[in-house]
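Researcher: Predict the fold of Futalosine hydrolase.
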Amino acid sequence: MKVSTTIVKGTIGTTGSDTDTTVGTSAAVETSPLVSANVSGSSARVLIVTAVDAERDAILRGLGDHASDRFDVVAAGVGPTSAAAGTAAALAFASAAASARELAPGFAASVESDAAQASAASWPGPARGTGDGSPAYGLVISAGIGGGFPGRAPVGSLVVADAMVAADLGSQTPDGFLSVDELGFGSSRVAADAELAARLRHELQRAGLAVSGGTAVTVSTATGTAETAAELLRRVPDAAAEGMEGFGVATAAQQFGLPVLELRGISNAVGPRDRDAWRIKDALDALQAASSILREVITS
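Model: Structure tokens for Futalosine hydrolase follow.
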């Protein structure tokens, strides 16, 4: 797969060839709680990370003309690795730029300031919507389309996750799959900001949109069989949605001490692969509608 990054009017867009970017899947076991989101009524900015341009554009349409007031939207690429790297780069850029501003007034700190500015300059900046190119983020959101588990998240609906779980992070054994938690090598779960997730679901429901909670599983290979879907539910009994980026975004946010959400528009049922049954446009429309409500929740 060839991946390239383009910058248009401050927007970072990552596109790939020889890869299927029409649908994503996501996965994550519980780590230490993140700082609770406190962005409503504050000046803190919100970083939204998608996989592909179509998802980013749907979110920007939903956020509307004033998206730049509070939001930056990054298309970081498909899969947990690209998502984690893109999120971490945007957050590091913001941190370096903020440090440069603090250091610049002091002549004695000129060397450190120049170094910080050089570090910031190496990253082209957060996505379209950036105000001054060096925001202070208070919340990170993984957003896009993905699969829904039948009976829990119907096609065309939304999922605002309670947690992001890396469902295929672990080891196969003769007795079955062992998660990274069971192996003692860390955690495969990051909790979403519970208060903000509940509030967003409530407002989406008030707006007449179908929305579910539950866990969003992150996987590196999208599910294509009934057997794999059943195995994921065995590993993560409360799984509602599947994507490929949520845990990566959440892990990067966690490293910076920031709260995180995952929002998915459901384009297909998790199970046997049937592209004729996918409803990509409906999922993107749902994501756009949800982004409009998200803007109201964050800015109210």
